[in-house]
Design a protein that fits this description.
The complex is a heterodimer. By secondary structure, chain A is α/β, with parallel strands linked by helices. In chain A, 40% of the residues lie in helices and 20% in strands. In chain A, helix 3 packs parallel to helix 4. Chain B has one domain: 3-Layer(aba) Sandwich (Rossmann fold). The chains are: A alpha/beta, B alpha/beta.
């Protein structure tokens, strides 16, 4: 194990390689270019395949093919590029193919700009493409956590045969922080890890019946049957894979809710609020889907207030309101388009919420 | 008595969904025969398109993969790169390969992916009800060119095979037809060659097959094969292109 200073984008790539990713296809887009460059440099040393695709569409459909062939496969992009990938993600969800898609978000809509944002939350957590499906969404708040979550992303993808999205923002992708690099578990086809062998993979039909990787189900009743199976799988994921970090939730009267980069600023605000004697806490969802509903239902009541802070004009706040279901007040603070809510803004907002009570 | 003709092992014993007189059934069989003849059934991974042949995997008795409309060559590229010892092919129509998937087609060819491509050109979108294809002939009436394709508004029939032949990484392109038994035999030979090339690591190989679509050409099957012979093959000349 050694400590290396890396950008978030490089750490994600290294984390993927350590987790046994052996296929990467991508297309250049800011602010995630260090990731594709790192893969171009290091994938071959890992014995894997790197392809600079002709388009985002081609890249995600290459991931579809590589995954169908049994490889741990991923792509990465930033917001406008991830919109283009939605076709392939929907097909992967339908065909139950694992894979990891990294979105280092920038501000939109449209070409927007290259400043950090958290405005793709809806797209990531609601499926994003056509049809009714879900993807697991993980949101790291530090470079080191981004590195570690890549192992989880590939393991979850294989365990549930589902696309997994790692959702970061331009700050996380670009900033450098120390990473504890270690040999993770390069699980491949279940030989090393506890994951099941990929009996469904396309390997040639020697000694078995032919396999098929497809989302198409034309025969009457077959698609509905498949969709019911998908919904059962999603329920299992909701029951088992909620993930969050909580700080001072046992005594908090104002709970700040933020994910990714935003949660670090919220944490700073929380500490300063506690210095002022205000019982603030922090709830940081690590998995955005499945949303950590259980963390909220444990901390409810008219005396507990929630303040949701996002680099958006209010997306995750909808999930918080659904989780809280009217049992506690839920307030919101957010900016997007390049602006990031500052520590002082959060403190001011909390203080004004407290005044409103009096 | 010696059995000289039977269903290839690579073709399943199922009833067809294709229209009477359609060329897909013949092309499926030729492909299955080539796979059997080369003894590669247990190594083959087929990539099916979106279009009339969307369920081609219901007919083939080997591993298959779906691809989104036009993306077959991106999917196939990845499968082959991950599993270079397998034999990977795409089977695509004109809309799939030469309209919505033109980008994937040109770039897979330009990278020289060691793949076999079977390209069915029937000058029309069949699955969706007979709309204009990139390969629709000038003057040909379709659901979306009701007055006939005009060069000034819709451009010319796209000769994607000739276009691909310009790329240095492309190794083999041949255009064949299904309009007579003699031409079917030539098609069989070309398909086999395109697979042999992949086995020999030669590189990107494509066989374009002119195929009748009696339903959306609004012709009886016998007239449709005559149209391929007399009209379509004049616009798309048969033979080795590269």
């Amino acid at each position: 194990m050694k400590k290396i200073l890396m950008t978030g984008n490089e750490a994600i790539a290294e984390g993927a390689l350590q987790a046994g990713c052996r296929f990467y296809a991508g297309y250049p887009i800011t602010p995630q270019n260090e990731l594709i460059a790192y893969m171009a440099k290091h994938m071959i040393e890992s014995g894997g395949v790197f392809i600079q695709a002709e388009s985002e569409l081609a890249a995600i459909n290459m991931v579809f093919g590589a995954s169908a062939a049994g490889a741990r496969a991923m792509t990465s992009s930033s917001s406008p590029g991830v919109s283009l990938k939605q076709e392939g993600i929907s097909y992967m969800a339908g065909a139950e193919l694992p894979g990891v898609i990294v979105n280092i978000m920038r501000a939109g809509p449209g070409l927007g700009n290259i400043w950090p944002a958290q405005t793709d939350y809806f797209q990531a957590t609601r499926g994003g493409g056509n049809g009714e499906y879900r993807t697991i969404v993980l949101a790291p708040s530090s470079v080191n956590e981004a590195y570690n979550l890549m192992q989880d992303a590939f393991d979850l993808a294989d365990r549930y045969r589902i696309p997994v999205i790692l959702l970061g923002d331009g700050i996380l992708g670009q900033m450098m922080e120390p990473v504890l690099v270690h040999n993770q578990n390069p699980a491949t086809n279940g030989k090393i890890s506890r994951l099941p062998v990929k009996e469904w993979a396309l390997t040639g039909c020697k000694g078995r019946k032919p396999n098929l990787a497809a989302s198409f189900r034309l025969a009457e009743g077959k698609l509905e049957e498949h969709n019911i199976h998908l919904q059962e799988k999603y329920k299992e994921i909701r029951d088992n894979e909620q993930d969050y970090e909580g700080l001072f939730l046992d005594d908090a009267q104002v709970i700040l809710v933020a994910y990714g980069t935003m949660s670090r600023i919220a944490k700073g605000a929380m500490n300063k609020l506690r210095e002022k004697g205000i019982k603030a806490g922090l709830l940081r969802p690590i998995a955005l889907w499945p949303f950590p509903v259980n963390a909220f239902t444990k901390n409810l009541g008219p005396k507990i207030k929630y303040l949701v802070i996002e680099m958006s004009y209010g997306q995750m706040v909808e999930d918080v309101r659904l989780a809280v279901n009217g049992s506690s007040p839920v307030e919101f603070l957010g900016r997007s388009g390049g602006g990031v809510p500052a520590e002082e803004e959060i403190i001011k907002e909390v203080l004004s919420l407290n005044e409103k009570d009096i | 008595m010696k059995k000289i003709f039977s269903r290839p092992e690579s073709l399943r014993d199922v009833s067809t969904h294709y229209c009477p007189g359609c060329g897909h059934g013949i092309a499926h069989r030729l492909l299955a025969q080539a796979v059997d003849d080369l003894g590669i059934r247990e190594k083959v991974i087929g990539v099916a398109p979106v279009g009339c042949a969307v369920v081609a995997y219901d007919y083939w008795n080997f591993d298959c993969c779906e691809a989104a409309h036009g993306r077959a060559l991106a999917v196939a590229t990845a499968i082959k790169r991950v599993r270079p010892a397998n034999i990977v092919f795409t089977y695509q129509g004109d809309g799939d390969l030469a309209a919505i998937g033109t980008n994937e087609t040109i770039h897979a060819a330009n990278r020289g992916e060691n793949l076999t491509v079977i390209f069915i050109n029937n000058a029309v979108y069949g699955m969706t009800g007979g709309q204009m294809a990139p390969t629709t002939l000038l003057g040909q009436k379709t659901a979306t060119s009701p007055r006939g394709r005009s060069a000034d508004k819709e451009g010319y029939p796209l000769k994607i095979s000739e276009l691909l032949a310009q790329l240095p990484a492309v190794k083999y392109i041949e255009r064949v037809s299904l309009h007579s038994p003699q031409e079917v035999l030539k098609a069989q030979k070309a398909i086999k060659q395109a697979f042999q090339n992949q086995i020999d690591n030669i590189g990107f190989s494509l066989v374009e097959i002119l195929s009748p679509c009696p339903t959306y050409w609004e012709m009886p099957p016998n007239k449709a094969v005559e149209w391929v012979r007399d009209i379509m093959s004049k616009e798309f000349p048969l033979g080795r292109i590269k």
